[in-house]
């Protein structure tokens, strides 16, 4: 598979977004960093594994876990607003590849304003991750 990033970051959001196949080490790191979110949302091992493997959240719990992790790293506010600059700051921590960063910036700017119709933050997180993933695919990358 063709993936965009080739580094493993220490933050849970970067783990969510980097495009290398996640192994046990990354999954364990995600569990450590996001332990509060696991407890807050009741996320299962399957939810954490899915996030570590860059799978789109498909269950209500997985979407709430995604919201919590994105909020933890200031990519989403309490009200579900996408903080594109904070997202890019995390991406810059993960890579210094200007081509990748430019694409991420362009893709993520298109996702600003993504919200669920009923302002459900968990649904918003799911829609945001899907927006980022769809944008990366449109830009010629399989996953963001």
Automatic annotation (TrEMBL):
Predominantly, its location class is secreted
Indicate whether Signal appears among the record's keywords.
yes
Q: Report the sequence similarity comment from the record.
A: Belongs to the PBP/GOBP family.
- Gene3D superfamilies, per the entry: Pheromone/general odorant binding protein domain
Pfam families reported for this sequence: PBP_GOBP
Region forming the signal peptide: 1-22
Q: Spell out the protein name for this chain.
A: Odorant-binding protein 21
Protein localization: Secreted
GO:BP terms for this protein?
A: sensory perception of smell
Query: What GO MF annotations does this protein's record show?
Result: odorant binding
Q: Which InterPro entries match?
A: PBP/GOBP, PBP_GOBP_sf
The record's Gene Ontology cellular component field reads: extracellular space
Alphabetical keyword list: Secreted, Signal
Task: Identify the species of origin.
Answer: Bradysia odoriphaga
